[in-house]
Design brief:
Layout lengths: L5 E5 L6 H11 L9 E5 L5 H8 L5 E4 L16 H7 L3 E4 L2 H6 L4 H13 L4 E5 L3 H5 L3 H13 L4 H4 L3 E4 L14 H17 L6 E5 L7 H5 L6 E4 L6 H16 L7
Parallel strand pairs: 1-2, 1-8, 2-3, 3-4, 4-5, 5-6, 6-7, 7-8
This protein binds 2-phosphoglycolic acid.
Length: about 260
């Protein structure tokens, strides 16, 4: 099965509407390769403007979260229907910052994945191991379990086109240290085996956590990596473009031959 290759950036609680429009205008001047599916995940307030600005470009736009219920007394929450009205291309579910700060659990992640799929939204599910799991050699086991729970009961057809991002908690953000290529290869291969055993070969596997233009190449060249999910290094359009070009050349170009 050939899956698309994805590179995207989650902006977290960053960027106003004006900053989003400036980013997308600058990104539109960059020559992006047509064999990489590029996406940005702005905050909710900038989503509608981002979708309009990106309409004439190949850049896809995702949301950072959604609620599992269709509507109701859920102050401060956003439903799938509100996102489909904007026309978002994907929705991030279960980022470790939301699991840590906002009480997101495997059960709420699973409910959201189901609701997203029912609404026709492409889920981008994030799973990650913590430092204790890493030190115990239990990284693969931990994230395979999270992914199984997120996808429980869903069919290959429902999950076709879905995205699953392995984002080690210890690798994310200012205090994160990037995972080694060997570690990513091992965990992605475990995730791939689990997905394939369930017939979920239409789910693409992304890696995220301190990805930048220096480490993106070898990660992108790994067999079981179908894309990269980038934070800080892609918060400028030039940063995103640099990661896309390095990753693309290792993935599809001659640089991969140096592995
Ligand atoms: P980072 O964030 O690249 O800044 O470590 C990654 C993420 O949280 O998805």
């Amino acid at each position: 099965m050939t899956r698309d290759f994805w590179i995207g950036t989650g902006w977290k609680m960053n960027k106003t509407i004006a900053e989003t429009l400036d980013y997308l205008a600058r990104l539109a001047t960059v020559d992006l390769p047509n064999d990489v599916r590029v996406f940005v995940v702005p905050p909710f307030t900038a989503l509608a403007a981002a979708k309009r600005a990106a309409a004439a470009t190949p850049v896809l736009v995702g949301a950072q979260n959604m609620h599992w219920e269709e509507a109701g007394a859920r102050t401060g929450e956003i439903s799938a229907r509100m996102l489909t009205e904007i026309g978002v291309d994907l929705v991030e579910i279960g980022h470790s910052e939301r699991r840590a700060d906002c009480g997101e659990t495997d059960a709420t992640v699973a409910a959201k994945v189901r609701a997203a799929i029912a609404a026709g939204l492409r889920p981008l599910v994030c799973v990650g191991d913590d430092r204790a799991e890493l030190e115990a050699g239990a990284s693969a086991e931990a994230v395979v379990r999270q992914a199984k729970l997120a996808f429980a009961g869903l069919t290959p057809a429902e999950l076709d086109g879905g995205l699953l991002a392995y984002e080690p908690i210890w690798a994310i953000g200012e205090n994160g240290r990037p995972a080694t290529t060997d570690h990513v290869a091992e965990v992605h291969s475990a995730l791939r085996r689990m997905l394939d055993a369930r017939g979920l070969d239409g789910v693409a596997l992304l890696y995220g956590g301190s990805v930048d233009a220096d480490n993106a190449g070898p990660l992108a060249a790994l067999d079981d990596v179908d894309g990269l999910f980038v934070g800080r290094a892609a918060w400028t359009p030039e940063g995103l473009a640099a990661v896309v070009h390095v990753a693309r050349s290792w993935r599809f170009g001659d640089a991969g031959a140096h592995l």
